[in-house]
Amino acid sequence: MPEPMLRQQLCDYARKLNSSGLSVGRSGNLSVRCGDDCLITPSGVDYQQLSADDIVLIDLHGQGSEKSLQASSEWHFHCGIYRSRSDIQAVVHAHPTYCTSLACSHRTIPAFHYMVAVAGGKDIPLAPYALFGTEALSAHVSKALQQRQACLLANHGMIAIGESLPSAFNLAEEVETLAEQYCEVLKLGTENILSDEQMQQVLDKFHDYGQRV
Fold first, then answer.
1. Per residue, what are the HEC states of the chain?
2. CB 153 within 8 A of CB 159
3. Which residues are tagged catalytic?
4. What is the mean pLDDT of the chain?
5. Region 61-86: what's the mean pLDDT?
6. Is the dihedral of CA 163, 203, 178, 213 positive or negative?
7. Which residues neighbour 182 within 8 Å (Cβ) at sequence distance 6 or greater?
8. pLDDT tens-digit profile of 156-204?
9. Which is more confident, 47 or 100?
């Protein structure tokens, strides 16, 4: 997709962060790979007022034009993901209520439901806490996402990644739904977790199931 279209797509999905409930206010950030670089939402800009020209182009080490706005403070883990995962084209970071609640209680999302496999594995892992906007957090994120498409961030929020911005955003919404359901399961007091063998069967079936964006 040409750069102007990617810029507009980021604006559209940044506004969807608020309308979808994935994040409120100016929290959350998004990026897409653009050739050897990446396009990322800027720091401190109201997404309702965001324009395509506000989107920041940086290389995969966070360097951009001095004339551009400042990139999101979370550029470290966005760039870290692109460096470690050549298959990934988009990153969505948000602070949705249920994912964040689990992350703040230092819980993963285990295989309580077969749809947990939508994130690429037998659970949705938790990246350890580190200060936002640091290389330490980026290292934790890259490790958590080695074999997953989503993870929680301790005392922080969640990340979803994908082969396009729509697919990463859709996954973020699916993970938040799973997090809400898991919170309800925890209220009931009994977790019935699927076995590794059962989850592997799901993962195998997902390889040729449906038509994902």
1. CCHHHHHHHHHHHHHHHHHHCCCCCCCCEEEEEECCEEEECECCCCHHHCCHHHCEEEECCCCECCCCCCECCCHHHHHHHHHHCCCCCEEEEECCHHHHHHHHCCCCECCCCHHHHHHCCCCECEECCCCCCCHHHHHHHHHHCCCCCEEEECCCEEEEEECCHHHHHHHHHHHHHHHHHHHHHHHHCCCCCCCHHHHHHHHHHHCCCCCCC
2. yes
3. 74
4. 95
5. 94
6. positive
7. 98, 102, 109, 110, 112, 113
8. 999 999 999 999 999 999 999 999 999 999 999 989 999 999 999 999 9
9. 100
The residue to which tokens 């507009």 are assigned: 8
Q: How confident is the model at residue 211 (pLDDT cuts 50, 70, 90)?
A: very low
Tokens, residue 8: 């507009």
CATH for the 3-206 domain, from 3.30.70.100, 1.50.10.100, 2.60.40.2230, 3.40.225.10: 3.40.225.10
Buried b (16+ CB within 10 A) or exposed e, 69-108: bebbebbbbbbbbbeebeebbbbbbbbbebbbbbbeeebb
The pair of structure tokens assigned to 4 is 């102007």
Q: How many CA atoms lie within 13 A of 13 on its CB side?
A: 28
- Answer yes or no: pTM beyond 0.85: yes
